[in-house]
Fold:
Amino acid sequence: MKYKRKLPFATVKGDIDDIGKNLVALILKNYSYRVRDFGVDVPSSRIVDTAIEWGSDVIALSSLMTITMEKMGDVAGLLKSRDKDFPLLIGGAAVTEKYVWSIRASYAKDVIAAVDAVSEIFKA
Ligand code: B12
Structure:
């Protein structure tokens, strides 16, 4: 059976928006990714611990608010401190291009772009 890429998905700590996350997760599942939804308001350490435990291929994070966007950077920092280089895919209304670049993540603005972004990550 073909290996299915594992993709944990969470809305970051402090943010309870899940409509966009749910849409993107649903479509990625339809493209045969194994998506595990961690839910909303998820602490960065739990995202990282569970992603490592599960042996993820890419971590997907959503944030709709400017004040919670920085939690995505916390996840990137925690991964680095634990010598893990899972690619990060991020999205949500608050996310800016500059921020994406600053934490070395991939970004997609909507559902269709998310499908393209994930396949781009695995092309490398
Ligand atoms: C619905 C909504 C809510 C709902 C959320 C319900 C739910 N279950 O999700 C409720 C009422 C709970 C809410 C509460 C609040 N909200 Co509100 N909310 C919105 C609103 C109107 C729409 C968001 C939405 O669902 N859009 C539809 C979905 C389909 O779009 P989306 O989430 O953007 O997702 C798409 C893309 O962004 C992308 N995407 C999203 N995530 C990801 C992840 C990955 C990996 C990828 C690749 C792509 C991706 O793909 C999706 C599909 O195209 C936005 C306004 C806006 N313009 O975004 C404000 C907005 C996000 N809220 C805002 C605020 C301030 C709040 C509150 C603080 C209000 C308050 N004073 O209580 C609280 C905070 C709650 C919290 N702690 O999270 C602000 C944030 C401002 C900022 N820049 O920080 C916004 C932008 C409104 C505004 N203009 O002021 N909110």
Observations:
- Helices lie at 19-30, 44-54, 66-81, 97-102, 111-123.
- The first strand starts at residue 6 and ends at 12.
- The pocket of cobalamin is lined by residues 14-21, 23-24, 60-62, 64-67, 89-94, 108, 110-111, 114 (CB under 6 Å).
- Strands lie at 6-12, 34-42, 59-62, 88-91, 106-107.
